[in-house]
Design goal:
Helix content is 6%, strand content 47%. The chain starts with a strand and ends in a 21-residue tail after the last strand. The chain is mainly beta.
């Protein structure tokens, strides 16, 4: 579970409010001055995530499993489902237990 808050200051919009030259001069009569600034304000919201991983060791060198996770917040709601098999063909390598699933791009 999570909670976030943010604040954005009022600012002129690019390029209309601060761009010198022909573009601004030709558009001033057509644009409402209120449209040239971003009012800013407060933002934020709540979020939650849920994750489940199950794994079964079939033999010393073969493991199978599944992983499921969801993340929920405003404008962001990815689901991740994985089925996987891990095997080691040589006795030298050991397999990771508990499972270590793939990392979604959003968490880099």
């Amino acid at each position: 579970m999570g909670d976030s808050s943010s604040h954005e200051d009022a600012a002129e919009l690019y390029p209309l409010a601060s761009a010198p030259g022909q573009f601004l001069n030709s558009r001033v009569a057509q644009v409402n001055p209120a449209d040239l600034t971003n009012a800013g304000g407060n933002g934020g919201g709540d979020s939650y995530s849920f994750s489940v991983q199950l794994e079964h060791q079939f033999s010393k060198h073969l493991i199978g499993g599944l992983s499921f996770s969801i993340d929920r917040s405003q404008d962001y709601s990815p689901d991740l489902f994985q089925l996987y098999i891990k095997s080691s063909l040589w006795e030298v390598l050991t397999l990771a237990v508990p499972p270590q699933g793939l990392i979604p791009y959003s968490r880099f």
